[in-house]
Amino acid sequence: MRSVRSRGLTAVIGAVLSLGALMTAFPFLWMVFASVKPRPESVAYPPRLLPRQPTPEYFAQLFAELDFGRYLVNTVAIVLISMAGVVLMAMAGYGFAKFRFRGRRLMFFLVLVTIMIPSQVTMIPGYLVLNGMGLTNTLIGIVLPTLVSGFGIFLFRQFMTTIPTEMIEAARIDGAGEARILWWIVLPLSRPVLAVQVVLTFIGSWNSFLWPLVIANDERLYTLTVGVSLLNRQIATNPSLQMAGSTLMVIPILIVFVVFQRHIVRGLTLSGLK
């Protein structure tokens, strides 16, 4: 009797969760299907979810007529440069987790304070500094202010405190230098939190909109997010074309999240975040 009730309850919970997942995924499905609809179908009333005559012409138009190929290259370049920041944050987190030095707590407190400062507050000072360095209208200028984040350092520090100090001390006794310990012992053991930070860095760099728009006056340095926002101004309103641009933005993030999903959950759990 209990097993029957348990199976019934499991079926009800599964149905409710499936309905919730479908409702959550519906806007995404609408966007994907709308991106391959001919324009008459995209503006037809009543609207239909599935296209009758799907076409990839709007994806081709993005690259052939609207320079989205350059925007994509710029975005990928920004993402790759930003990955160097993951290494820098790992080094800082390792220092705060496993080294004892004067002012360590104060410095870590200052790192945490930076998490509480909105990026809009530092945007104008950051622009003035980069302008003085001659880095406006450059990819480096777009990446530099967000290369290292206080949250990333905090995440690495929280995870690396769980790595046994005895293992590191044994490596030091064997003659390993700090760089070798970091690269061959600490980072391999920190793969879950590395995966988390790689995904967070990818999403932040891929979705960056306001700062690239501010720092880059040259359209050749625009990113995909800026390109999508310009669709309304470049040509007449075309819902299918806008959905194609949005799909191009979302699909890579979805793929990265699916690939690293298991590591993300494990990394956040072991870092003490709920």
Features:
single chain, mainly alpha, 274 residues, 74% helix, MetI-like fold
How are the SSEs placed, and which strands pair?
Blueprint: H1 2-34, H2 39-42, H3 57-64, H4 68-98, H5 104-115, H6 119-132, H7 139-143, H8 150-160, H9 165-173, H10 178-189, H11 191-206, H12 210-215, H13 224-229, H14 231-234, H15 239-270
How is this structure best described in words?
The protein has 274 residues and is mainly alpha-helical. It has a single domain (56-270), classed as MetI-like fold, CATH 1.10.3720.10. It has helices spanning 2-34, 39-42, 57-64, 68-98, 104-115, 119-132, 139-143, 150-160, 165-173, 178-189, 191-206, 210-215, 224-229, 231-234, 239-270. The radius of gyration is 24 Å and the shape is flat.
Instruction: Compute the number of helices.
Output: 15
**Rg calc:** 24 Å
CATH class: Mainly Alpha
CATH architecture: Orthogonal Bundle
The total beta strand count reads 0
Concise overview:
The chain has 15 helices and no strands. It is mostly helical and 274 residues long.
